[in-house]
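It is worth pausing here to work through a concrete case rather than discussing structure prediction in the abstract. The textbook approach is simple: state the sequence, then state the predicted structure, then interpret. We follow exactly that order.
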Amino acid sequence: MPKGYWVSVYRTISDPEKLAAYNELAAPAVKAAGGRTIVRGGRVAAHDGGIAERTILVEFDSFEQAVAARESAAYQEALIVLSDGVERDFRIVEGID
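Step two, the predicted structure:
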C-alpha cells in the first residue's frame, strides 16, 4: 500500500507567535495520527520557479491516514490557532508503492 505524505511549503510567516502556538498543538496531533516528520525546515535549494522557504514533509502509512489526520479534531484546533499567521502551500500526496 502506498504511503501518504503531507507537503507544506511556507511562502510567508507573518506571525511567528501563531506559528509557534500551532507547532505546539500540531506536533502531538500529527504524532497521535501516526505521522512521522521527516523534513522540518533546514536547507532548501529551489529551482524552476520554486521558493526556498520553510518546507515540512510528514509521512503516514497510507494516503487515507494522511487525509484523516488533516481532518482530525486535534489538527483542526491547531489550524484555528495558526489562522492567518502564515501563507503556505499544503498538499496531501500519495507515494509510489
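Step three, interpretation. The chain has a mean pLDDT of 95. The beta strands are 4-13, 36-40, 55-60, 86-94.
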